[in-house]
Design goal:
Blueprint: E1 4-9, H1 11-18, H2 33-38, E2 41-49, H3 56-76, E3 81-83, H4 87-91, E4 97-104, H5 114-121, E5 126-128, H6 152-164, E6 167-169, H7 177-184, E7 190-194, H8 208-216, E8 220-223, H9 227-230, H10 244-258, E9 263-265, H11 285-294, H12 299-317
Parallel strand pairs: 1-2, 2-4, 3-4, 4-5, 5-6, 7-8, 8-9
């Protein structure tokens, strides 16, 4: 069995807001504990997403609430789940599945650098600088052009993140902010969850230059499983359904551009409802493996894509 590590899922966001229990097999979540164990999962990056309707102190409190939920589940299952806080925790092989809280959008920081220390103390080890909307760092990919680039706070935030060993995540980050971040970083950045714009031409997907920029800096690109990023006009009437083979197509494109050491998965599971027909939840991961093998990927590359690349990236970034 291939070990599995995932750079992005919204499972604990859903658990916090809707009361779904990832320990229950009958929950509607894409990811639950039994599926994680059956999949040989070793690590899950846990999105701490804050909707656009929250800002400043409300955004901070909302994010803390999701981390509170994650912490309750870790405490309830100490033999199965554990937070990964350091590079040594990533390297250690044990029976527990490592969880890493990760801000999806910097809104909870409310433009205050001292709040990075607060969230770091709670285990946050990565920050997606924006979501689709504007925040104190930059305009997200859902903002209309001309988009604002990296703010002065954004510059100082990236510098402090790197000093602490917090991953700089450029998912949802458009131009010009993306290039400004690439010029600023001194440690490997990532795009935790994306599709390839060469295959589906939307601003949310990373273009070839972005993919190369991440790889050139020793970073990581996670391909997600959301149909809207995988096929053109995914939800338009008459459009065919997306499948695991579409994920495989994006993975293959990214591998060809970035090399086999920089590409993995950032599923975005539990962040959407309409799934690929044969990748409905984590239990269908074998279908993705079959699709990648059908495209010619061998065991060595599959091992990298399924887990080793993400683990190696985190080992380079976390202190």
């Amino acid at each position: 069995m291939l070990a599995y590590a995932d750079a992005h899922a919204d499972t604990f966001y859903e658990a916090a807001l809707k009361g779904h229990d990832p320990a229950r097999d009958d929950s509607p979540l894409h990811i639950n504990l039994s599926r994680m164990q059956a999949a040989g999962q070793t690590l899950q990056v846990c999105s701490i997403f804050t909707p656009a309707r929250y800002s400043k102190a409300e955004a901070t409190a909302f994010a803390h609430g999701i981390i509170d939920c994650l912490d309750r589940h870790v405490a309830a299952h100490p033999g199965t789940l554990g937070k990964a806080l350091r590079a040594a925790d990533i390297a250690a092989k044990g029976p527990r599945i490592a969880l890493i809280p990760w801000l999806e959008g910097a809104s909870p920081l409310a433009g205050r650098l001292e709040l990075l220390d607060e969230f770091f103390a709670r285990g946050v080890r990565g920050i997606g600088l924006t979501h689709n909307h504007r925040n104190e760092v930059a305009d997200g990919c859902g903002c209309k052009e001309p988009r604002l680039g990296l703010s002065e706070f954004g510059h100082r935030l990236v510098e402090k993140m790197e000093a602490l060993g917090v991953a700089v995540d450029c998912a949802h980050l458009p131009q010009p902010a993306f290039s400004q971040v690439m010029a600023l970083v001194k440690r490997p950045p990532c795009i935790s969850h994306t599709g390839c714009r060469a295959l589906v031409h939307i601003t949310r997907n990373a273009d070839d230059a972005m993919l190369r920029a991440i790889a050139d800096r020793g970073g990581f690109v996670g391909i997600d499983f959301y149909p809207g990023h995988l096929i053109e006009n995914a939800f338009a009437p008459g459009t065919r359904a997306a499948s695991a083979d579409d994920v495989a197509a994006h993975v293959t494109h990214a591998l060809n551009l970035c090399g086999e050491e920089h590409v993995g998965f950032g599923s975005d599971f539990d962040g959407f409802e309409d799934t690929c027909t044969d990748l409905r939840h984590l239990g269908d991961l074998r279908n993705l493996e079959a699709a990648l093998r059908a495209r010619g990927l061998r065991d060595h590359t599959l091992e990298r894509v399924f887990s080793r690349n993400l683990l190696a990236y985190l080992g380079r970034v976390l202190l």
